[in-house]
Design brief:
Mean pLDDT of chain A: 97
Order of helices and strands of chain A: HHHHEEEEEE
Oligomer: homodimer
Strand content of chain A: 15-25%
Helix content of chain A: 25-40%
Number of helices of chain A: 4
Number of strands of chain A: 6
Largest interface: A-B, 39 and 39 residues
Largest sheet of chain A: 3 strands, mixed
Chain lengths: 129, 129
DNA sequence: AATAACTTTGTAATCAATACAAAATTTAGG
DNA sequence: CCTAAATTTTGTATTGATTACAAAGTTATT
């Protein structure tokens, strides 16, 4: 399915800018920061503004099209894959790796309605071990 | 067990300042920010510096005495309870609630060594529903 | 084309977190 | 004790990710 179609399904108007940003995120599974997305796209889109990247990430995230990864304290990262999976942050090299996991059996109290679940691990990755 | 004893067990010298900060966190299970801890303690500890709070949280967190909660993008929160449990962030009121959960069955690849696991949910809490 | 609605942009501001070096405190040796 | 070394704490200045905001640009509707 095209990025434009996915955006439309979530009630987001698929402007050129939004499709370009979302396309980039779908094609680069590196969990980029807003700044990295901006730097990657701005050579080919000279009028792109960093604020637009932030606006777009916020919009897509709030509509559930992407996931916002807050495993790092300094800055948010983004992931186009919304399937259930975990994120592993290496303390040494700073790399973020996906891993398979099931959702845990959570005892969310009555009346609480979660819309997003995140599973984070922090430690040392294979290369740094 | 006293806060001083716990710090010592983790190889942290239990200075008055560190014990005071850790005591506060153990007694206030509100997941406070560094700024909230500083504001709460500073009337009774006029020479306390906010930098010291940040330093202490970083030290205690890196030694596994406390948990750093990064569920919010804006600022870190801290938790003296290191038992397995999840954190629920309400999008509307901003409250953070503990919930019981088991660790999920995670397929961490060979060679990866996690030392911390976090389970976050974001949604709407009982009061806001 | 005109108007309204929405999107994008650039600049300035916010504010959590850190760097850094001086001051204060604690420890250990004589 | 007394001094020097090691550690901890402090205050100020800085960094840097994110947001506020209003102007400019674009798109849709009549």
């Amino acid at each position: 399915m095209t990025s434009a179609q996915i955006l439309q399904q979530h009630g987001i108007r698929p402007s050129l800018t939004r499709v370009m940003i979302y396309d980039y995120l779908r094609e680069h599974r590196t969990h980029p920061t807003a700044d990295e997305i901006y730097s990657a796209l701005s050579p080919n889109a000279p009028t792109l503004s960093k604020t637009t990247v932030y606006n777009t990430m916020k919009l897509l995230s709030s509509e559930g099209v992407i996931k916002t990864i807050t495993i790092e304290e300094q800055q948010a990262r983004f992931d186009a894959c919304t399937d259930v999976h975990g994120h592993f942050l290496c303390r040494d090299c700073g790399g973020i790796f996906d891993f398979d996991t099931e959702l845990p059996s959570m005892k969310i109290p009555e009346g609480f309605a979660p819309s997003v679940t995140e599973i984070y691990c922090i430690g040392r990755c294979k290369g740094c071990n």
